[in-house]
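Fill in residues.
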């Protein structure tokens, strides 16, 4: 984990060079931090799935929103699931 724009920045960068990605671990870390320093309000993060070479279904992403005051995840979306639903003609919020 690093601060994206250096000291004083409010942007944290989590990166997994092993390729496994632990989204639940990030959520646990943030909720623990929120408890420790009594954070409130909404906080969110985006996830990017990448690949070192062209492959089908190897790219995508998503986003998560956490209510720090209630200490719980309140919503998430996946670009892959959104795209699949849109291609099936299902209603979605654009």
């Amino acid at each position: 984990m690093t601060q994206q724009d250096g000291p004083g920045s409010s942007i944290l960068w989590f990166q997994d060079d092993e390729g496994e990605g632990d989204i639940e671990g990030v959520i646990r870390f943030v909720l623990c931090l929120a408890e420790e320093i009594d954070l409130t309000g909404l906080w969110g993060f985006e996830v990017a799935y990448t690949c070192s070479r062209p492959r089908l279904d190897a790219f995508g992403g998503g986003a998560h929103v956490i209510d720090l005051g209630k200490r719980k995840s309140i919503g998430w979306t996946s670009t892959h699931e959104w795209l699949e639903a849109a291609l099936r003609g299902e209603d979605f919020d654009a």
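The longest strand covers residues 42-49.
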